[in-house]
Amino acid sequence: MRRFGWVFVAAAVLAGAARAEVTFTGNFVQGGLVYGQTAPGSKVTLDGRPMHVSAAGEFLLGFGRDAAASAVVDIVHRDGTHETRTVAVAARAWDIQRIDGLPEKQVTPPPEVLQRIKDDNAQVAAARARDTDEMLFKTGFVWPAQGPISGVYGSQRILNGQPRAPHYGLDIAAPAGTPVVAPADGIVAMAHPDMYFTGKTLILDHGYGLSTTYSHMSEIAVQVGQRVKKGQMIGKVGATGRVTGPHLDWRINLYDIRLDPALIVPPMPAAPHPGG
After folding, report:
1. Distance between CA atoms of residues 111 and 150, nearest Å
2. Same domain for 126 and 155?
3. Alpha helices in the chain (DSSP H)
4. How far apart are CA 79 and CA 259, in angstroms?
5. pLDDT band at 13; cut points 50, 70, 90
6. Which of 41, 176, 255, 266 has the most CB atoms within 10 Å of its CB?
7. At 55, which CATH number?
8. Burial classification of residue 235, based on how many CB atoms lie within 10 Å of its CB (0-12 exposed, 13-18 middle, 19 or more buried)
């Protein structure tokens, strides 16, 4: 499986008869992000959904956890001609964990907080719906924090026989107060001091519908509307919200399509040995 570190090695090339090639780079897999390049002035849809295309013909595609085995990419060129391609999307196996005998209050939130959860979700959805006309993501991505991976994308728990929503983030275990950095250039789209499930929560907009989310932080060091550079500190690891210990829950979305952060970064650097 190719990781998506913006070292462009074509994953697929679709040749047009009398026009520039259409190239794809990335992971045609559940949770994968793909960068595309077509002729300037073209329009692109993914399964009928319009994608943001730059004047130079660049665009992104994303495939969720439960994406079908194939997807249809339709490209309409400036001259009105179009290409339709069906691309295969590889399936993945997910970690499913069953836990029974839990007190009901640990499985279902109490009624008095349901409106708060609804409001939280609406704010997150609005931040992820942004479609900024800047390809800030082209700086490439690095890890926002370092530490053991304590939770992976796509895993799911079945509590007292009730399937819970899959985990769409990547959990990085680290001591409270550990710096969190921007993995790529971006604009702060949301900075919430206290969400019910995720506590102090930050969302960065990387352009063209691509965003990243950081949850359970002990401190948020940036403000809404602020531009951040790759590697700049944006906050600190914490244990706010509904958690059992300090960690960073890191997520990536293409609009409302939830992707796997592990596919856009190189392997995490090894921790230094004690004593150097």
Report:
1. 30
2. yes
3. 114-128
4. 33
5. very low
6. 255
7. 2.60.40
8. buried
What pLDDT sits at residue 109?
A: 76
Q: Is residue 271 part of a domain?
A: no
- If asked whether residues 134 and 255 sit together in one domain, one would say yes
pLDDT-based confidence at 249, cuts 50/70/90? very high
Q: CA 145, CA 180: separation in Å to the nearest integer?
A: 5
Measured CA to CA, the distance from residue 179 to residue 185 in angstroms comes to 17
User: Do 258 and 187 fall within a single domain?
Assistant: yes
Placement of tokens 């969302």 in the chain: 203
* CATH number of the domain residue 252 falls in: 2.70.70.10
Residue 181: pLDDT band (50, 70, 90) is very high
- Asked whether residue 156 falls in the same domain as residue 188, the answer is yes
User: Cα-Cα-Cα-Cα dihedral of 69, 24, 18, 49, to 10°?
Assistant: 60
What are phi and psi for residue 244, nearest 5 degrees?
-105, -5
**Residues 82 and 111 placed together within one structural domain of the fold:** no
How far CA 32 is from CA of 15, 101, 122, 245, in Å, comes to 23, 35, 25, 29
Reported as a single tens digit per residue, the pLDDT across 38-54 is 999 999 999 999 999 99
Please state the φ and ψ torsions of residue 207, each to the nearest 5 degrees: 95, 155
- DSSP designation for 120: H
Residue 127: strand, helix, or coil = helix
Range of the domain at 159: 96-263
Is residue 275 pLDDT above 90, yes or no? no
Please name the amino acid found at residue 271. Answer: A
1 domain-assigned: no
The Cα 160–Cα 100 span in angstroms is: 4
Three-point CA angle 83, 88, 91, nearest 5°: 155
